Task: structure prediction
Amino acid sequence: LGAARRRKSRTPWLWLVEDYARIRDLIAQVFDDFEDFNARVAQPGGFRLRNTASERVWATASGKAAFVPHAVPRDTPSHRARERVRDALVFTLLTTRSHDQYNTTIYGMDDRYRGVVGQRRVVFIHPEDIRALGVQDGDWVDLKTVWDDGQERRADRFKLVAYDIPRGNLAAYYPETNPLVPLSATAVAAGTPTSKAIPVVLVPHEAAV
Result:
């Protein structure tokens, strides 16, 4: 893309894509954590990326972790959706990756983090919410977004999986749930999609006829 769009660029785009190690060497010139990266990544078994939090190392004046309290928002899309929809339970859906996934690239159908094997069309839900809906763990449901623009957004045929998740919340894998995210649902400052907080309702799966 760089070579096609910037034909007079001094950056040797095609030379770089011939060997991604060259790209990593350039990154190392501006990012200290990439120092000697190519040699380290070639070691059998790879290497561990340092995580200062796991080592209890905090770059603060006190040398300790600092916590800043914030008020819990009371005017979110889910709050507004619950005001509009009184005859159904409105949940807040977060979309997430499985263990066998990197961004939207899916390498396998298992998720060892959550005990899911051989499937992806699942929605994690608190057991009490399952009972409140009058359904059963393992039932199939369709998800519908609650938004204010009159457009229908849905993702069909997901299996309920009882899970230790806060009541009123759901979790499911993307990209299967991407159709539920309105283009206008963006973070106030960042402008990124609010894929971790989509108001939805669950309905029994409508099997194709």
User: Anything to note?
Assistant: The mean pLDDT is 94.
